[in-house]
Fold:
Amino acid sequence: NAGVTQTPKFRVLKTGQSMTLLCAQDMNHEYMYWYRQDPGMGLRLIHYSVGEGTTAKGEVPDGYNVSRLKKQNFLLGLESAAPSQTSVYFCASSRDPIYEQYFGPGTRLTVT
Amino acid sequence: GQQVMQIPQYQHVQEGEDFTTYCNSSTTLSNIQWYKQRPGGHPVFLIQLVKSGEVKKQKRLTFQFGEAKKNSSLHITATQTTDVGTYFCAGPTGGGADGLTFGKGTHLIIQP
Structure:
């Protein structure tokens, strides 16, 4: 099993450009999460999903949109990138919200 | 909202010295989890503690859950260079579907 995978691994955007980050998991988990990690800030939840077709806002949702059209995939979109969105983005999944989360390898995004 | 605090933020040790990181929650937790993130890597689940006063060991790592289920600690005996990384604690976010609240982590730096 691949676990949780993320594409791309690295990306550089110019301010105002858009992009989509893809997360895929093969563990049949219902719950999926998108985090951003910045120095000194720990992991901050952007959006999450409790199942196919459902999404909800986390702690820092502004400037991001998500979709979960298939159970195994969770997409994170940036419609108009800003330098403040330069960060490392992690996707995670779990079988239950109170149990362990499995993280993908991350996407390092730089917005210039 | 719920807060999970970790101290210290950084810890420098000589190889072979012991290391301890502490985690405190503003609310009682149903469980506490610990994750390790190697430099440039992604968080990886280490262990989950559920019972009040629980102690678990993994080789040189000892995890404790406080009697009041609001605090926890991770102790590493005789650190090795492979222990380098950031250690996060996390607890369920008030039972909601948004998963876990993570502490900001303790960065362990080991000097040979």
